[in-house]
Specification:
The complex is a heterodimer. Chain A is built from no helices and eleven strands. By secondary structure, chain A is mostly beta strands. Chain A starts with a strand and ends with a strand. Chain B is mainly beta. In chain B, strands 2, 4, 5, 6, 9, 10 and 11 form a seven-stranded mixed β-sheet that branches. Chain B has a four-stranded antiparallel β-sheet with strand order 1-3-8-7, with no helix packed on it. Chain B starts with a strand and ends with a strand. Classes of the chains: A mainly beta, B mainly beta.
Amino acid sequence: GQNIDQPTEMTATEGAIVQINCTYQTSGFNGLFWYQQHAGEAPTFLSYNVLDGLEEKGRFSSFLSRSKGYSYLLLKELQMKDSASYLCAVLNYQLIWGAGTKLIIKP
Amino acid sequence: DTAVSQTPKYLVTQMGNDKSIKCEQNLGHDTMYWYKQDSKKFLKIMFSYNNKELIINETVPNRFSPKSPDKAHLNLHINSLELGDSAVYFCASSQPTDQSSYEQYFGPGTRLTVT
């Protein structure tokens, strides 16, 4: 079967660092995506990993371990505007989506 | 300029009615998708079209019928609407010439409420 797990909700403080984990079990793997979705809006692309390791893009970084079926999204210097849902998606022959992690930022 | 647009943004209708949602992309992409996002926020793919041809048709009721008049448009027609159809429907497009191009660009969504 196809399964992607993420925590349902996380809370962090403005200016801090937060790590959102994603574990997956899929019949195939051609890459892993992270998307951000603000309430009432469409998902927008954040990152793509296909090889093991860390990809850094400004305040956001994404890590992948294919042998462990594991990825995380690291957000640094949190800002209030980072309050959103973060969706992990695995590319098999199509994108398989996790349910998303709602991140709440407190002042 | 909006890359992926959908109309209408909001749709409130009664059970049993038939309705359509339209989607257009001006990115020149070959592949377009319809997703359903329910109240629990799961994004579930419904259909995928590549160059006007259906390539993915997940298990959805046959009351849902996509139509692609050209590769820039993918419309969704829903017959005999039911309460469980209430959700946000997203259109998306991509140009998967290589794996990283599976990045999908989403429209703003259509919030369908069936009463």
